[in-house]
TrEMBL record:
It comes from Chaetops frenatus (Rufous rock-jumper). One of its GO terms (cellular component) is cytoplasm. Residues 9-46 form the F-box domain. SMART domains: LRR_CC. This is FXL22 protein. Keywords: Ubl conjugation pathway.
Length: 226
């Protein structure tokens, strides 16, 4: 029995075990398998592990998308998360090429995936409060939002959650150093039903001018010497 003799439901089940590249390659073999690849039901879950994956033509975005995860853990991602004033020319050039990659992708998700239920972002150092605000407005069914080490996120995102996160049940803001304790407390007061986790976020040193950072480093060295 040839694979193309299987019905659509069986083919969708088989495709679900393949990664995005394998699905795309198999879809190139015949029209029937291409139809399976283009079936929205196949794309309810998407996971990405590098910025380049977001630019590939091996997946579909649409109303069927329910769960999205974008997690970067490479050394290059750590390099992009380093403050601009500490970067060398190579680092700045690399980071500038990917600065809007995730933001542009999430804008596309906001416009095309209104039924999104969960979003996990980790190490996406270039996304901003406005990006999360637009997503909360366009994806009213969002129940879980997990942000880890998203260094540009501030209390404005917390305020956006209180205004537009009516369906939100879980909010993780771990290692988002530009959040404040006051902002987290306001969110807890306004949204007591939301399970909030913000490990170390309000206790980390926020972004500041290079002069202030150098001063803090010098003071730390003095304390160590004492």
């Amino acid at each position: 029995m040839h694979i193309t003799q299987l019905n659509q439901e069986c083919l969708l089940h088989l495709f679900s075990f393949l990664d995005k590249n394998s699905r795309k390659n198999l879809a190139k073999t015949c029209h029937k398998l291409l139809e399976v690849f283009q079936d929205p039901l196949l794309w309810s879950l998407l996971n990405f592990h590098s910025p380049m994956e977001l630019k590939k033509d091996n997946f579909l975005l649409g109303p069927a998308l329910k769960h999205l995860s974008i997690c970067w853990y490479s050394e290059r991602v750590k390099m992009c998360n380093t403050e601009d004033w500490m970067k060398n020319s190579f680092q700045k050039e690399f980071c500038s090429r990917h600065e809007n990659t995730v933001s542009d992708f999430l804008l596309d998700v906001s416009n095309r995936c209104p039924n999104l239920l969960s979003l996990t972002l980790s190490g996406c150092g270039h996304i901003t409060d406005d990006c999360i605000l637009q997503l909360l407005k366009k994806c009213p069914k969002l129940k879980s939002l997990k942000l880890e080490n998203c260094v540009r996120i501030t209390d404005l995102t917390l305020e956006a959650v209180t205004l537009h996160g009516a369906s939100l049940q879980t909010l993780h803001m771990d290692f988002c150093r530009n959040l404040t304790r006051a902002g987290l407390e306001r969110l807890r007061e306004k949204c007591p039903s939301v399970v909030l986790r913000a490990e170390r976020s309000a206790n980390m040193i926020p972004d500041s001018k290079p002069e202030k950072k150098l001063m803090l480093e010098k003071e730390s060295r003095k304390l160590v010497q004492l």
